[in-house]
Structures are given as C-alpha cells and as structure tokens.
Amino acid sequence: MSTQAKPEYVEETLSEQAVCEYLAAHPDFFERNAKVLAKLRIPHEAGGTVSLVERQVSMLRQKEVKLERQLKELIQVARDNDLLVGKIHKLGIHLLAADGLNATVAAVEEAMRAGFGADQAVLVLFGNPDGFDDVDAGRFFRVVQREDEALGPFATFLKGSGPRCGQVRDAQRNFLFRADAEDIGSVALVPLGKKASIGFIAIGSVDSNRFHPGMSIDFLSRVGELIAGALNRY
C-alpha cells in the first residue's frame, strides 16, 4: 500500500473579467452544464435568493413592460402627428379658398383658435399700417414697420432661420399680447418668409410647458410656410 501523499488541491483565483470573457466565448456553457445552472443563486431585491433562470425571466418581463410602454408612446406620437397633419391640410385648403387679404387673415385666425387650440395668437405683418386699414381682424392682426423700435426685443429671432419656442421676455409678451400678457406662460414664434421677411405669427399658451425649446418645430415651420405663401399673394 502506497503511503505517498496525495497532491493538495490549489484553487486558482479567476477575475470577474476572465469569467465574463469565458462565458461570452462559450454561450452554450450552461447548456452543457445544466446542473451548474440549477445550483446558481443570486440575491433578490425583496430578500432571499432566486435562481439565475428566474432572474432572467424577471428581467425579460421588465424589458417587455418597458418596450410595451415605449410602443404605446410611439403610437400616441404617431396619432398626434396624424392629427397635426390633418389640421395643417385643412388650413391649406382654407387658405387656397380665401378670396382676398381679409379672408386669408380670418382663415389663419380661425386655424390658430379652433384648429391649433391657441389661447392667444397674433399675426404681425411688416409694412405701413395705413395700407391695411381695410383689414378688420381685431387684436389678432397687427401691422408695424420692420424698423419699429418696439420690435427691438425680437431682433435675434428676426435674424434667425426658424421658429422659436419657450418662455419669452416681458417686453415681448407685452408687445404681443398686451392686456393678456400676464396670462401667457409660453410662446411659439413662427417666421413668415425667409428671416421673417414679411412678418411672423405668435402663438401663446397659458401652459408654461406647452411650447419649450426642446420640442420639434417641423410642423410649425410648415404652418409658417403655408401662411407666408398665402399672404405673399397680396
């Protein structure tokens, strides 16, 4: 009988990175070692432990819920965009049917109030006010010289290339909405023509979050182009 001592087992220490790399290189490891998979247990937030398979199922369920929520959000965005496209289409039809400047301004005002749900809106055209005495649109329609000092607070916007959304300075609100200025929380400024060559339209909301700098301006740009095209006829 041999009295030779058996070699002592020495456990090699593997880094987490090495384990991860091995498992990534051998994705079928647990298929070939099902008993090891069954023995694996990991901590659970609610206390105790769960098997790796149970944990994977839980993570997949969470991922499914997240994807379902994202899908619902995308569907809602698509529906909202479809409604906006319909409103813009309707505005275009009314502008095409408008006979004269009075009818065009009335069509724009109706679209802002009823179609786009603006709490307040103002159409500002650049020109000589005396030449528009026959336009009766109340507070919605305003004609000023582009060099008017009252437009000073809008200098940056007028030199820009597209709509701007968000909260505006008091001087801008007072010029646009006058007696109702204090009620306006956010505004969308939409240029009419390149660099607002013929004017701009301001859409005001009592909701301070309705118009914000991070929102998409594609639809506002299209509305501005439609209105500018219609007004250029006169």
Please specify the SSE layout and strand pairing.
Elements: H1 16-25, H2 29-32, H3 34-39, E1 41-43, E2 49-51, H4 52-97, H5 101-115, E3 120-126, E4 141-144, H6 155-159, E5 164-166, H7 170-177, E6 186-192, E7 199-205, H8 218-231
Parallel strand pairs: 3-4
Antiparallel strand pairs: 1-2, 3-7, 5-6, 6-7
Helix pairs in contact: 4-5, 4-8
Explain what this protein looks like in three dimensions.
The protein has 234 residues and is of the alpha+beta class. The protein has 2 domains: 16-59, no CATH class; 98-231, Beta-Lactamase (2-Layer Sandwich), CATH 3.30.450. The chain is 46% helix and 15% strand. The chain contains 8 helices and 7 strands. The strands form 2 sheets. Strands 4-3-7-6-5 form a 5-stranded mixed beta sheet, covered by helices on one side. A two-stranded antiparallel ribbon has the order 1-2. β6 and β7 (199-205) form a beta hairpin. It is elongated, with a radius of gyration of 32 Å.
Brief overview:
The chain is 46% helix and 15% strand.
How helix-rich are the residues, as a percent range? 40-55%
**Can you tell me the overall shape?**
elongated
CATH architecture of the largest domain: 2-Layer Sandwich
Q: What is the CATH third-level topology name of the largest domain?
A: Beta-Lactamase
Q: What gap, in angstroms, lies between the N and C termini?
A: 116 Å
**Strand fraction:** 5-15%
What's the SSE pattern? HHHEEHHEEHEHEEH
CATH class of the largest domain: Alpha Beta
Tell me the number of structural domains: 2
Strand order of the largest sheet: 4-3-7-6-5
